[in-house]
Amino acid sequence: MGTATTPAVAEDTIRQQQWHLEAMHASEMWKVTKGQGVTVAVIDSGFKLDHPDLEGQFLPGKDFSGSPGGVGTFADGHGTGMSSLIAGTGKGTRGRGHWVWLLASRSSR
Fold first, then answer.
1. What distances in angstroms separate CA 103 from CA 22, 24, 48, one per listed residue?
2. What is the C-alpha separation between 23 and 86, in angstroms, rounded?
3. pLDDT per residue over 1-47, tens digit each?
4. Pairing verdict, β 101-106 and 39-44
5. What end-to-end distance do the CA atoms of the chain give, in Å?
6. Which candidate, 107, 43, 48, places its Cα nearest to that of 77?
7. Residue 22: CB partners within 8 Å, gap ≥ 6?
8. Strand, coil or helix: what is 48?
């Protein structure tokens, strides 16, 4: 039998994989701001609007793709991934400005 991973250990592992936080000196940046009052437009192929890291972060966006489904169409995960790097709340991915609002807009490729 294998050993079970506790949530704390799993969280530490996730944090260790988030190279972008160290590369962008996030801990120093967060001393100044966590993005309060900032809205970032993310234009991509679609978004998982109910993703746990981004729940409550999305403002109503616009679909410019001309394809069915709307902004909340979860195409390939790229838009959600980029949004998590920007504004993830830390349930999995911690973003640079986790108090940022996201204006998700869908475009065609």
1. 25, 22, 13
2. 14
3. 455 444 454 455 666 667 777 777 878 877 887 778 889 999 998 99
4. parallel
5. 46
6. 48
7. none
8. coil
